[in-house]
Amino acid sequence: MIKVAINGYGTIGKRVADAVAAQPDMEVIGVSKTKPSAEAFIANQRGYPLYIAEINRKPLFEEAGIEVAGDVIEMIKQADIVVDATPGGIGVKNKKLYELHDVKAIWQGGEDHEVAGFSFCSSCNYEEAKGRQFTRVVSCNTTGLCRIIHAVDEAFRVKRVRATMVRRGSDPGEVKKGPVDAIVLNPVEIPSHHGPDVQSVLPQINITTMAMIVPTTFMHMHALQMELEKEATKEDIIGIIEAHPRMGLVRGATGIKSTAELKEFAQDMGRQRADLYENCIFADSVGFVGKELFLFQAIHQEADVVVENVDAIRAMMNGAADAATSIQMTNEALGFHAI
Ligand SMILES: NC(=O)C1=CN([C@@H]2O[C@H](COP(=O)(O)OP(=O)(O)OC[C@H]3O[C@@H](n4cnc5c(N)ncnc54)[C@H](OP(=O)(O)O)[C@@H]3O)[C@@H](O)[C@H]2O)C=CC1
Ligand SMILES: O=C(OP(=O)(O)O)[C@H](O)COP(=O)(O)O
Fold first, then answer.
1. Per UniProt, where does D-glyceraldehyde 3-phosphate bind (predicted)?
2. Which of 29, 130, 175, 198 has the smallest CB count inside 10 Å?
3. What is the mean pLDDT of residues 277-299?
4. C-alpha to C-alpha distance for 6 and 31, rounded to whole angstroms
5. Does residue 338 belong to any structural domain of this protein?
6. What is the ipTM of this complex?
């Protein structure tokens, strides 16, 4: 069994912990928090040993009735691999710790590519992650872009990509974040970080991205254009999406035209936490003007990177022969079939 520690049990960390716990070849040896919270109670309830960043805060947890197993260093010492899901900018500070204890580590998209020197997306570059000490799983939007761009590029060669990301303002629990009543250009400058980030996984892709944030909490929406070198039809693209284990189609017959309806759909499907791990591509938006492909896709920010983290663990631990095997194992353990 691969011993996995999750340093930072928040939006991403708690989902990665549950996904790891579901895998037949992995176990969660600990998760971490800095302060007592609802998530800390849940960690206890789920039976994940809870470690804390500063051991002198242990009485605070115990007074709240939360059991503490030890400090983060003790957790790291027991792990084969650490998934660092601390907030962006904190993870990089933990690198020295992972080096000191000679443990493998995975960072998230809130950190720069340089933290690991290697950026990951399962269906794009699994082979290159094999055996590595450090890896960074790219951000939720970048993951969604990489999946579709790589799949279309393999079949029809992508000449140029233009993408606009309409991003959720905050995660559902982040009551102090906004915007409440604005469309915020984030950033004003072009490109947004997503284009260069895609190139950290797919260096050959010519891509420019723009991004803004809006007052919603569930999912981002991408307006995506790809100029292709070879002739392709709408049916070809639909076929690529249907064959991909991490991409799904929102079919016209569902009547779904929004992220709100997708949330209802995910809940009705019985997905844990309404998580949509797959790119949700609107089938009726897929179309061509000449050799230029257009589509809309919704990306669930809290979920798509979770399955990628599980595959990154397997690749770095040499736990599966190839990407297809790992992706299938991950999906099956979660009972996940793309829509
Ligand atoms: N949320 C999203 O939609 C996505 C986030 N990401 C990336 O994932 C990473 C994590 O983001 P997210 O899950 O949203 O963040 P959250 O703020 O939800 O969770 C971060 C967790 O880290 C804990 N933490 C903070 N400091 C430390 C520390 N020094 N040692 C151990 N634990 C610590 C916090 O605990 P406590 O509350 O006790 O302080 C909290 O549980 C970021 O890089 C982000 O950019 C990537 C894709 C999507
Ligand atoms: O990885 C994400 O978005 P991103 O791909 O736009 O950087 C997550 O939604 C986190 O974004 P945040 O930095 O707005 O919390």
1. 139-141, 194-195
2. 175
3. 98
4. 5
5. no
6. 0.97
